[in-house]
Amino acid sequence: MTDRTPPRAADWLLRRVLPAGPRGDTIRGDLLEELRAPARSPRAAARWYWRQTVSLACRYGWRRSRDYGERRRHMVLESLWQDVRYAVRSYAKTPSFTLAVVTTLALGIGASTAIFSMVNGIVLQPLPLPEPDRLVYVNETNPKGDFISVSWPNYLDWRARVRSFEALALSRDEALTLTGGERAQRVRARRVTANMFTVLRVAPALGRAFTDADDTPGAAPVAIVTDAFWRGQLSADSNVLGRTLRLDGVQVTIVGVMPHGFEFPRFNFPRPHDLFVAMGPVSGSVNLTDRGNHNGFSAMGRLAAGVGVERAGEEIRAIAAALEREYPNSNSGIRAKAAILADQLVSSIRPTLLALLGAVCCLLLIACVNVANLLIARGAGRQHELAVRAALGGGRLRIARQLLVESTIISAIGGALGVAAAAWLLRVLVAMAPDGTPRITDVRLDGTAMLFALAAAALCGIAFGALPALQASGGAGQQALVRGRAAGFVARSHRLRRGLMVVETALALVLLTGAGLMMRTLQQLTHVETGFRPERLLTTRVQLAGEHYTPARRITFSGDLLTRLRALPGVSNAALTFSLPIDGSNWNSIFTVADKPIPERAKLPSAAFTPVSSSFFETMGMRLVRGRPFDATEAPDSPKTVVVNETLARRLWPGEDPIGKRLKQGWPETPDHPTKSGEYFAPWREVVGVVSDVKFNGITSETPLQAYLPLLHEPARSLAIVVRATVEPTSLVPQIEAVVRDLDKDIPLVQTRTMDQMLDASMARERVSMIIFVMFAIVALTLASVGLYGVVAHGVTERTHEIGVRLALGAARADVLALVVRQGFSMAVAGSIVGLLASLALSRWIEGLLFGVKPTDPATFTAVVATLLAVALIACLIPAHRATRLDPTSALRAE
Amino acid sequence: MGQAAYLGEFEQLLLLAILRLGSDAFGVQISRELEARAGRRISRGALYTSLDRLEDKGLLRWKLAAGSPARDGLPRRLYVVSAAGRAALRGSRATLQRMWRGVEHLLEEPSS
User: Fold this and answer.
1) Burial A828-863 (b: 16+ CB within 10 A, else e)
2) Cβ–Cβ gap B43/A52 under 8 Å
3) Which of A267, A293, A349, A540, by CA, is between 20 and 30 Å from A174?
């Protein structure tokens, strides 16, 4: 046995970490015994001892700290639990306060999260396609700068010359009739160039993409179907490749199926596309090869690596300018514009969403201010209680924690309700969204937005909830205890609350102004003179597709259809047209007038050309201004005639009688009779009548120049049926359906709507915006008036003593009333002034949403301020009235 | 089936070592026994905390014995496997035997 002693530091450490008593002693004893065993050299023994010490220190040290931590945590949890119970009890004692805070929070968080989720889904989220920020939308513009569609030959030249794009594709929406099933149905197709799939970087999940061969004129018609169509219509047949679909009377071979979840970016289609068709069947048609024709196509390209949209836009503009020089006849004034696809998709709705987002920020702010206000009032009322607790030894931290727990609990409850409210509101908003709202299917409840709103509301609640804690335990606390009330804090809290009230009133006024302007807009819209009588007017569309519908057959079909429709009971008149009012034009064209000098090409007039049947004007309830409508004079081979609208007559023949003048659709040099080469031709037409203007492209756009042609001369394939009913118009739908099916079982009715529905739909965006703004304004006004009431009522309670003195000294009750009202009302006035200025400053944000009313409309502003002040006055009068009824003796005794 | 606690391998080794040592089972001896028979060198930290754990599970008990000069008079803890510990060991053995039955021939050492 040797007489070694353990290293001192190791021994010290062991004594600290090992359990006290025999447990630790026996371990140290064992170690000593082994240290002194002769087997090891002294140095090795010392090293060994250290190693064991470290291993014991690690094991026992960790165990000790864990036990200690647990005990401590347990204590903390215990007292936290106490705080929670205390908080719940105190909230339960003031249910109206609790309800106010929770409701405010829930409204603020719910509304802001829901609206932000909409904006996020529609505007901010990237498109669900690979590298969507490199997808660019390219279109041609007319001399006015409006987007018109892209001419096929121009596109082919762009494609050959452009360097900024990896690939540039062309496409358009088409509605095709699918027959061969039980019932004919309309399918939504996108006609695309083969490289579209390269641009989108999406390949079919089954089969092949289109190839350039599919685009060449005369190529066999092929289609690629979407996954949804494949599952829904083709029963997910795995042998679908090679099957044919009969589309518009043509057998089209299916060559591919797109992957699940793929959706082509949609501009206006309310439904996703069903299938894609290749260019081959149309690329050789005279219609497409004429450079002057813009057939509804738009281009979409993928930027080459390292190229920005600006550079691509410049290049496209340069190419367009070159084409303008090369083909002055067709391209004069035709330019091109490029924009990021995602921006272009939502460009129509972006102003609405941004204005709503602004409104919702206002609402969230109001909610925060209101919560702050309520909590400060509560805090001020609790000064005494807190001072007592501090005096009894409640630590500053302990009291602060108590208040923090209270604020956190109420914020959490408000937040949870807010999340539920957001989910519900978002569902309502999505359901309310106008048909065809882009990307509405991408809208999800947004986690980030929810977190943001929760954090904002919670922070506000916690910050203002804990404010009194800082006062309570300081010097002011002593005062509070002695004087029953901490005058300093109360005064400070009053100033703060009054300031917050001014902010809240101002914000409410901003929202009220927005709501007022939107209401005026909708009022203006519903009073727009449409130029026709929309009541009891039913519209629906048919498509005479396929080779067998020759012009002669189309004329026969139209004649038969009209005769049968007019014979239906409940139908007072019926007509056919190529394009419907409100719905917009399907055929815009340059035209030339016979008796006027030909202007330079970029300034040639353009009109919406609209083939219509006889009695169209009567059926629509349009007014004939001069001449005659189309009647029995018009026959398929009669001299060509045209009826123009007032705008066209005024523009082309100001101060002259347009009857008997001649015009020709197309360029000055377009032949007016068929030529041997099969070139496009347009005959001269004599103006036989002038009709009143109608709203043609929606309800807000100016009426374009319009030229109505006899359907007998221009037998269109796509026809809208217009029926003037003497009964409820929708009740006629089955009979009309039967008439059409009887004529051709393969023709389905599509887009069946009453004219009233169409008008409603055309104002849907404004109506939805208005509803949301009004909802927000009501909430804002309610919150602001409740807040105001709270501040004034609290002021009255605080000043009970003073008011008592005044009354005792003989002050008139009216004076007391005026005193109290003046104090509250001055906040509302100050808030209104700030709010007015803010509204004026913000007016341009809402300008894009308005129609027929200026964003600074004095009438609206006056009405809004009057409303706000009236509500504010009521909110002040209630507590003021109470103050005048104070009994002076008891008021004095109360102190 | 009894409520016999599940024993880890190291726990089994510890309990068996204590059984083998009989009345002389204290820390130093246990670690020596483990090293000699099972070829395990273990840190004292692991040794004592494992013994504590077995004690918490009720699988062993200890009593104090007087110290010697070699340990500066510090006492020893003499461990004894409790009835529950013995039951747990039997259970573990039975489980292992059941699992072994019929597979010995698959694990026979190559004959040459």
Assistant:
1) bbbbbebbbebbeebbebbeebbbebebebeebbeb
2) yes
3) A349
Interface test with B, best of A28, A33, A50, A56 (most B CBs within 10 A): A33
Between vectors from CA A65 to CA A62 and to CA A67, what angle results, nearest 5°?
105
Radius of gyration (C-alpha) of chain A in whole angstroms: 39
Residues present in chain B in total: 112
Q: What share of chain B is helix, strand, coil (3-state, %, to 5)?
A: 60, 10, 30
> What's the rounded Cα separation, in Å, for the pair A758 and A729?
13
Matching residue, tokens 């007017």: A537
User: What angle do helix axes A396-432 and A383-391 make, rounded to 10 degrees?
Assistant: 140
Residue A164: both structure tokens together: 């900024």
**What is residue A303's predicted lDDT score, i.e. its pLDDT?**
94
Half-sphere exposure at residue A751, Cβ-oriented, CA atoms within 13 angstroms = 23
Strands A250-257 and A222-225: parallel
Q: Report the candidate in A339, A326, A327, A364 with the shortest Cα–Cα distance to residue A112.
A: A364
* Selection from A105, A729, A70 nearest residue A407 by Cα: A105
Record the tokens describing residue A224, joined without a space: 């690629």
Q: What is the mean pLDDT of residues A90-117?
A: 81
The arithmetic mean of pLDDT across residues A575-595, rounded, is 87
The residue of chain A with its CA nearest to that of B73 is A29
Q: What are phi and psi of A452, to 5 degrees?
A: -60, -50
Here the tokens at position A470 are: 């800082």
Q: How far apart are CA A168 and CA A300, in angstroms?
A: 6
Which of A515, A128, A117 lies closest to A353 in space, CA to CA?
A117
Q: Do A32 and B77 touch (CB under 8 A)?
A: no
Angle at A418 between CA A416 and CA A419, to 5 degrees: 65
Q: Give me the mean pLDDT over the A259-281 stretch.
A: 84
Residue A844: its pLDDT value, please?
Answer: 79
Q: Return the pLDDT at A490.
A: 61
A546 contacts A248 by C-beta, under 8 angstroms: yes
3-state secondary structure of A883: helix
Reported ipTM = 0.90
> DSSP class of residue A221?
P
Please give the Cα distance from A307 to A402 (Å, whole number): 59
Residues A258, A277: Cα–Cα separation, whole Å: 12
**Residue A829: which pLDDT band, with cuts at 50, 70 and 90?**
very high
For chains A and B, CB pairs below 8 A equal 65
B20-28 LR contacts (CB < 8 Å, sep 24+): B23/B78, B24/B78, B25/B78, B25/B79, B25/B80, B26/A26, B26/A30, B26/B65, B26/B76, B26/B77, B26/B78, B26/B79, B27/A26, B27/A27, B27/A30, B27/B51, B27/B76, B27/B77, B28/A30, B28/A33, B28/A34
Tell me whether residue A333 is exposed, middle or buried, using C-beta atoms within 10 angstroms of its C-beta: 0 to 12, 13 to 18, 19 or more.
middle
Q: Cβ contact (<8 Å) for B70 and A36?
A: yes
Q: Which of B31, B49, B74 is opposite residue A26, by nearest beta carbon?
A: B74
Residue spans of alpha helices (H) in B41-111: 44-56, 83-100
Residue of A23, A31, A50, A59 to mutate for B, most B C-beta atoms under 10 A:
A59
Cα–Cα distance, A407 to A387 (Å, whole number):
19
Taking CB atoms and an 8 Å limit, are A22 and B64 in contact across chains?
yes
Phi and psi at residue A254, in whole multiples of 5°? -80, 125
Q: How far apart are alpha carbons A355 and A842 in whole angstroms? A: 10
Q: CA gyration radius for chain B? A: 17
CA atoms of A513 and A478, how far apart (whole Å): 47
Question: ∠ CA(A778), CA(A781), CA(A784), 5° rounding?
Answer: 150
Question: What does the block give as tokens for A856?
Answer: 């600074």
Q: In this complex, do B49 and A22 lie within 8 Å of one another by their Cβ atoms?
A: no
Rounded Cα gap, residues A225 and B14, in angstroms:
71
Pairing of strands A222-225, A275-278: antiparallel
Instruction: State which residue of chain A sits closest to B66, comparing Cα positions.
Output: A26
Q: Contact, A236 vs A205, CB < 8 A?
A: no
